[in-house]
């Protein structure tokens, strides 16, 4: 199994380097749908939206490379879809096989507790979740699951990971993005200001310890985003993104990045 995971790591890492650095086009439909909604302003910011464009492209590239099938033939779960922008991008890549879900809550983070112009405009069906960790799907239902800024907010991250492991097919992949890191300089600044929106922080070591109990094995992990993207409008946003990626891929400053992210596989 170690040899297999080592080989998969090389495949996923290659897909990551290639898709993160490619000059993907932004989604004008998402930017237009987000117009006039303050909570969606980061999707009108090119630097902010680009992150989601290349992350979803990476999910497709890595899934096809590891699973050996076209992405259009894979079943995908967008766990905690929120504003719906990730679901929209994923559906554009795989129109018929993306399931979106979110906790049925009045919280402003939930698809059911905030304005959702993207979900409305593009007719994205969101399955309400009525339990903090349990999912309303049978075992081995999905080839791929992804979490974008979700795991750090659930009441019990280990129970939620176990559910992700349960609903994934053997050999299925779990992509987890935007986990706030223990040494993140942006998190330190937020906490100094009294903002504890992210009160649970993660490291690569903690991720490795959490995954086995969920039946998941780590394939690849990395740090991402030294430069803030959501609220800062960079005049040459692609150049700043390349600089950011160079720093987080090749220098020790990566440990101070905003996010630690990973790809794991469901063990047979």
Distance between the termini: 11 Å
Number of domains: 1
General shape:
globular
The side-by-side strand order for the widest beta sheet comes to 3-2-1-4-5-7-6
CATH class: Alpha Beta
Number of helices: 9
Q: Could you tell me the number of beta strands?
A: 7
Helicity, as a percent range:
25-40%
CATH topology: Rossmann fold
| The CATH homology group name | Vaccinia Virus protein VP39
Order of H and E elements: HHHEHEHEEHEHHEHE
Describe this structure in a few short sentences:
This protein has nine helices and seven strands, in the order αααβαβαββαβααβαβ.
Describe this structure in words.
The structure is a single chain. The protein has helices at 2-21, 28-33, 46-67, 85-93, 117-121, 157-167, 185-192, 204-210, 237-250, and strands at 76-79, 98-103, 126-129, 142-148, 168-180, 216-224, 259-266. By secondary structure, it is of the alpha/beta class. It has one domain (2-266): Rossmann fold.
């Amino acid at each position: 199994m170690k040899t297999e995971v080592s080989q998969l790591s090389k495949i996923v890492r290659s897909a990551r380097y290639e898709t993160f650095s490619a000059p993907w086009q932004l989604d004008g439909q998402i930017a237009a749908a987000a117009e006039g909604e303050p909570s969606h302003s980061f999707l009108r910011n090119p630097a902010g939206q680009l992150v989601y464009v290349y992350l979803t492209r990476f999910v497709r590239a890595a899934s096809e490379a590891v699973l050996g099938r076209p992405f259009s033939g894979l079943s995908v779960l967008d766990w905690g879809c929120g504003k719906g922008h990730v679901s929209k991008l994923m559906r554009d890549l795989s129109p018929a096989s993306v399931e979106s879900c979110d906790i049925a809550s009045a919280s402003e983070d939930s698809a059911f507790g905030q304005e959702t112009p993207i979900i409305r405009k593009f007719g994205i069906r969101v399955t309400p979740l009525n339990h903090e960790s349990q999912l309303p799907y049978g075992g081995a239902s999905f080839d791929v699951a992804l979490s974008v800024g979700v795991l750090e907010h659930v009441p019990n991250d280990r129970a939620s990971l176990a559910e992700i492991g349960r609903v994934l097919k053997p050999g299925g992949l779990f992509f987890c993005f935007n986990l706030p890191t223990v040494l993140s300089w942006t998190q330190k600044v937020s906490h100094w200001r009294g903002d504890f929106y992210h009160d649970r922080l993660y490291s690569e070591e903690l991720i490795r310890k959490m995954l086995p109990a969920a039946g998941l094995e780590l394939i690849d992990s990395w740090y991402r985003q030294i430069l803030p993207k959501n609220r800062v409008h960079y005049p040459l946003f692609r150049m700043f993104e390349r600089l950011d990626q160079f720093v987080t891929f090749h220098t020790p400053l990566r440990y101070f990045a905003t996010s630690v992210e990973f790809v794991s596989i469901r063990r047979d």
